[in-house]
## 1
Amino acid sequence: MTTFTDPPAESFKLSMLVYDTRYRSITFQILALVAVLLLFGWLTMNTAQNLNDLGKEPSFGFLGESAGYDINQRLIDYSSQSTHLRAAFVGLLNTLLVAAMGCATATVIGVIVGVLRLSGNWLVARLMTVYVEIFRNVPVLMWIVLCMAILIEAMPAPSAFRGDNPDATMKLFDTIAITNRGVYIPEPLFSRSLGNLHIGTAFDISINLLAILFVLGVSLWIARDITRRANAKQEATGLRPRTWHTRLAVIVLPTAILLAFLGFHLGYPELKGFNFAGGTYMRNSLIALWLALSLYTAAFIAEIVRAGILAISTGQTEAAAALGLRGNRIMSLVVLPQAMRVIIPPLISQYLNLTKNSSLAIAVGYMDITGTLMGITLNQTGRELETVLLGMLVYLTISLIISGVMNWYNNRVKLVER
Amino acid sequence: MSDTAFDTTPVIAPSALKVSDEVAIEISNMNKWYGSFHVLRDIDLTVHRGERIVIAGPSGSGKSTMIRCINRLEEHQSGKIIVDGTELTSDLKNIDKIRSEVGMCFQHFNLFPHLTILENCTLAPIWVRKTPKKEAVETAMHFLEKVKIPDQANKYPGQLSGGQQQRVAIARSLCMKPRIMLFDEPTSALDPEMIKEVLDTMIELAQEGMTMICVTHEMGFARQVANRVIFMDQGQIVEQNEPEEFFNNPRSERTKLFLSQILGH
C-alpha cells in the first residue's frame, strides 16, 4: 500500500532566480529588457541634448520646403520648385523601379544559369560556373561602376548617328537608340487618351493605364476560371481539355481591343539636332545599376536554384519515371514543388539584398531614395537625423513587405511532416 | 577483376522455369558498363507470366542494376530486353509503354513527400493513364485497403512509419495496374517488425498471380513464394533453380559460399 503525498513545498530562495530552470530564462529576459531600454533612453536623451545644444529642434517641417534641385531620371512630374517630400517620393519610386527590374531579371538569369550549371553539356556547365564565380566574388559596387564605364566608353555618342553614312545605327528596326548618354526606347502614346486622374494637387494618374490594368485584371481572372474548369473536367473525365489558345485569346484580345480604341501607338525616338528626342529615355545610370545588380544577384540565385534542385534526391525522379511520368511532368509535379521550399527562403534574402544594394546608385548618379532624401536633401537642410531615420524607415518598410509576401508564399508550399 | 573470376555456366533446372507459356520479359545477351567497369555480363533471362523470381547475391553483384534496366532507369549498352512484346530502345514511346506496364518499389520507398498518401497513389493514374479523378481515387482506396492502410489516406508520407510507407509505395505502383512488379530490396531499410508487414503484402500479391521479380536478402520469402531463385555475382547470373534445390543443393562453389554466409548464423 502506498500513500500519495504532495512533494514537499519548496521554499522560494533568491538564488533560484538564477539556478532554477523555471525562472532562469525569465530573469535574464527581464534583465536584458531593462538594459536595452536604458540604452535607448540614454541614446535618445543624449541625442536630444546634443541637438538642443546645436540649436536644432528635431522637426520634419523641411519636407514641405522647396527642394531646389533637379532630378534627371524620374517617373512622376517633378521640378526644382517641388518640395523635398516630392523629391523623396521621386527617389522612392526610382528605388522601387530599379529593385523591381533587378529582382525580375536576376530571377530569370539566375534560374537559367542555375539549371544550366547542372547540364550534362561540359562546356555549358563550365561557362556557367565561371559566370557565377566571377560575378559573386567581386563587390557589386565595382560591377556598377564597370557597367557605367562600359556604357559611357563603348557606346556611340548621339552625334555618331548623324549624317548620310553614320557610324552608329539604331537597333531593332530603328526603334531603339543606344548611346553613351542612355538608351532611348519607344514610348506608348494614345491618340484618343482618356486624360489624367488628379489625386489632390500632387499626383496625376493616367486613366488609360488604369483602364488597361483593369481590363487585363478581368481577363486574367477569366483565364484563371478557364483553368479551373479544365481542372474540373480533368477530374470528371480524365482528359484535360487543351485551353492555352482560349486562355491566350481571353488575355490578349480585350486588351488589344482597348488599346486600339485608345489609339495606341508607339512614339519612336528621333535624332533632333545633337540628341535624340521622343521615346522613353533610360539614363545610363539606371541601366548600369540595373545590369550590375541583376548580374551580381543572379550569380547568387543561380547557386540557390542549383542547390534546391540538387536537394531533391534522384529517388524522387526515379520513382516518378518508374510510374511512367515524362521529364517535364516530373519537373513540374514532383521536383519543383519540393525544390521551391529549399529555394524560397534564401531567395527572399537575395531580393532584400538587391533592394538594399540599390542604394549604391549614388555611385553612378542615379537618384534613388538615398540620393535624394539622404543625399541632396540632407546636405541642403542639414537634417541628418530626420532624413536618415526616414530613409531607414523606407528601406525597412520595403524589405518587410518583400519578405512578408515571400514568407506567405513559402508557407503555402512547405512540406507537412508529422 | 578478371573476366574469368569463376567460370561456371549457369545451372538451370528446366522443371522450375514454366508457370505459363506466355513470356513476360525476355533478356538476351545484355551487357552494361559504367565507364570501363563491366557491371552486367551477358545476361540471359526469360521470365514467364505469373512467375515469382527472387534475385540474390552479394552487394555490387549487379542485381539492382539488372532489374533497373528492365524499366530503363538504367540504360543497357548491348543485347536485347523485350517486355510484354515491346523492345526496350531509346524510343520514348516504347519506354512509356513499358513503364506503364511495369511497377517498381524501391529500397527507400521514394514516396513524394509534398503529396498526401492518396495523391501519391492518384498522381500517375491521373497524369499518365488519364483516369478521371473520382475513378483514380476509388482505385487508390481499393489498393490502400488491400495493403491495410486506408485510414492514412489523407496523411503525408512523413507522418507514416517505414513499413507503412513501403506498403503505400506498393499500392502506388499497383494503382497503375501493372502486369509486372519489380522490387528492389523492399525490406532492407526497415525494422525487423515492419519487414513482416511488407512481406505479407508481397506474399498476398504473389498469390494473386502477379509476375514479380524481387531483389531481396529475405531467404524465407524466397523459400515460401519464389518459384525460381537466381544467384548473381560479379555481373553474371551464376546459378538459377527452384528454391528447394537452390537452398539444399547449390551447385556452384560461389553459391555455396554465399549461402553458408547468409544462412550460417
Note: The longest strand of chain A covers residues 182-185.
## 2
Amino acid sequence: MNYSVTSDEELNALLERTMRAVSESAPDMEFSTTTGNQRWIATAAAATVLVVGVGAAGFALIARRDASSPPAASVAEPSESPLVRVDDVFLSTSIVKPGAVALQLADGQRLTFGVVGQPYFDGYAQAVTVQIGAASNGRFLPAGADVVAGAEPELGGNDTVVFWTGLPASVARVEFQPAAGTATWQTPVAGVAAFPVASHAPDDTLIAYDAAGNEVQRISWSAAKVIGSSTTGGESKVSYDYSSITEPPAVPEVDMAMLAGLTQFQEDEYRAFGNDTMRSCLAAKGDSAWTACIESTDAAVKQYLKDLQASRTAGDATAETTSP
Amino acid sequence: MYHQYRSQLLGLATLLSGSRAVAEEVVQDVFAAAIPRWDVIDNHEWYLKRSVVNRVRSLGRRATRAKHVPRPHDGVTGEPLIDETWRLLRGLPARQRTVLVLRIHLDLPDEEIARLMNCPEPTVRSLAFRALATLRKELT
C-alpha cells in the first residue's frame, strides 16, 4: 500500500473515514465467517443462561462455604480452566522488571511466562497497575492477583489473563469467581494459577484451597488486600493480612515538563523509543542488569526528549521567521 | 422505527464485531429487547447504541477470535486505503477495536467508554494506546 501515516491526527482522520465508510456500507458487506459466527451465536446464547446460573450459585457458595468442606461439594461445580501459555507479546508496550516476572516454569508446562510488577514507564504504569490491582491507597499486590492484557489463540479468544502467583505449596486448587460469569478452577503449577478471562471486575475473587478442600487464601483485588481465612468451630472468619503486600520496584519518574506540548503521536513515539531501548539493553546485558539498564535508558530517553524539544523549538523559530 | 435505526446500528455492530453476520443478529436481538420497553426509554438512539455495544461485548466474551487472514473479498468500500485500514482494524483484539470505535465513531469520552466496557478508565487509555500503536506501525 503506497501510503504512510505521519501524525496521530492523520491516523485518527483515516480511522474516522474508515469507520464511516464501513458503517455506511455494512448492509452490502459479505464476510466468509458466517457459518462460524452463527454457530458461535447459538452457543453464546445458550451459554449466557448457563453463565448467569452458575455465577449466581458461585457467589452463594462464597458466602456460605465452610472452609472445612471440599470445593468438590459445590452446588455448581466450576469447570476446569487449564493453564495457558502466554507469550511475551504482552510486553510489547511495556517493560517489566525481570525480577518481578514471576513465572518461568519447567519444560512441558503450558504456562511459560507471566508478569507481575510495574512497567518501566511511570506514565504507562499508571494504566497497567490499575489493571493489576493497585489500590487507591497506593498499595500493590505483587504476589497476588494480576491482569495482563493481550490476545493469543491459546487464550480461547479472551484477551485478559488473571494470574495468582506466589501461592503456597499447600495450595492444590484455585477457583476464579468472576463477578459475572462462570466460576472456573485450576490446579496451580509452581505456585501459579492463570485464568484466561474476557474481562475483569472489582468484585472478582480468587480462592485457594489445599488438597483437603480447606480454604487457604483468597484475593479480591479491588480491595488490594490479601484475605486470609481461619476456621473455628466450622465457622469461617475472614481476617485481613497486609504482610505480603510490598511496594513495586522503583522506576524513574517521568518528567512531565519534558512531555509538555508533545502530540499524542510524539508521546507514543517516545514511549516506544524508551521501551525499545530498555528491551535492547536487557537483551544485551541480561536480566540482572535491570538497574544499569534503567539508568542508561533513562538517560537516553531524557536526551531523546531534549532533542525533540530542540527540534520543535527550531521549527517554531523557523515558522515565526517565515510566516507573513 | 426499525428502519430508521437499523442501518446505523448495523454499521456500529459491524465495526464492533468485525462481522456483518454477527451484527445482523445483534441488531435483531437489541430491537427485540427494546420494543417492549419502547415507551419508557427516554433516548432511543442512545439506548439502542448502548445496547449494541453491550450485546457485542457479551457475545465477544465467548467468541474465539480467529487470526485474521487477508482475503480478496475483504474489500468493502472499493477504496484500497480504507479497505486496508478496515482489515487492520478487524485484526485488532476485540477490546482494542471496541475502544477505538467508541472513541472515534461514537465520539464517546473515555469515562463513558470505561463505564460501557466495565473497566477502569486507565484501561481504556491503555487499550487505545496499544491499538493506535499497532495501527500506526502497520500504516507507517
Note: Chain A has three domains: 2-65, 80-243, 256-322.
